[in-house]
Design goal:
With 265 residues, the protein is mainly α. Helix content is 52%, strand content 5%.
Length: 265
């Protein structure tokens, strides 16, 4: 690998480490115009695939139509509730003051989970999207990391990139730092991988892909874990919780006080 000049290297630390003494610092090389194409090629080599909201939602409706055992009228009502809920999620992305109905979110999540269990195409989509959200940011991170300090992990390259097993060690080391700092009541520290996902998102930001990654991470997954109907992983938190103690949580997952919706049968 051709050595980089100092002008091509930038130093960066996760924002959640702002109040952490002796925090790890990471060095990044500047992307070139060809790197975005290299990144897309690397995703293909790794077999990573992401299904869009529209594709997942269409498959949910297809599964519902194939598996429904009640009347066509009841199925139409249920389809309408799914579509209305997805529309509310999109609206909440545009308006952070919009409040998602908690009971309706729970009902949609439960119904979606049953469809995933019963419909193999949705299970495959779910597995692919979760793997993409976990590994794609690491692919970018491996391309642009040029070193680090204050972290007990040896930096090395293979074929010009930091290998995945080294990035896994970095993630584990950062998780351990977060856990200890949280126990020590360091302001801004959130356990559960927030700092590492901020780090990975920064690598995507270098290529101008951070916004797309944020949308992917908050897209409705076939298997929903939080009340908004989308997986709340570290990357979502990295955008929504730049500093956990510096601002309140966005309203997109807050419950309303109204609980009138019936469960989806």
């Amino acid at each position: 690998m051709i050595p980089l000049s100092k002008e091509e290297i930038s130093s960066w630390s996760p924002e959640s480490y702002a109040n952490l003494a002796g925090a790890p610092a990471f060095r990044f090389r500047a992307p070139t115009p060809r790197d975005k194409r290299r990144y897309q090629h690397a995703l293909s080599v790794e077999g990573l695939r992401f299904y869009s909201d529209e594709t997942v939602q269409a498959e949910i409706l297809h599964a519902l139509a194939r598996l429904w055992e009640g009347s066509s009228e009841d199925r139409a009502v249920t389809e309408g509730r799914f579509k209305a809920f997805w529309a509310s999620l999109e609206y909440a992305r545009q308006d952070p003051t919009f409040v998602i109905d908690a009971d309706e979110a729970d009902a949609i999540a439960e119904a979606t989970a049953r469809l995933v269990d019963a419909w193999s195409p949705l299970r495959r989509m779910n597995a692919d999207n979760r793997r993409f959200n976990d590994e794609a940011p690491k692919v970018a991170l491996g391309m642009f990391l040029a070193g680090w300090s204050n972290l007990p992990v040896h930096y090395r390259l293979e074929d010009g990139v930091v290998p995945m097993e080294v990035l896994d060690q970095v993630e584990d080391a950062m998780d351990a730092i977060e856990t200890q700092a949280f126990a020590d009541n360091v302001e801004g520290i959130v356990p559960g991988g927030l700092a590492f996902m901020q780090l990975a998102l920064h690598a995507l930001d270098l290529m101008g892909l951070g916004k797309a990654a944020e949308k992917n991470s908050s897209s409705p997954s076939p298997s929903s874990e939080d009340q908004s109907g989308s997986p709340m992983n570290g990357r979502t938190a990295a955008r929504k919780g730049r500093s956990a103690n510096s601002r309140s949580k966005p309203a997109t997952t807050r419950a309303t006080t109204s609980r009138k919706k019936r469960a989806i049968s």
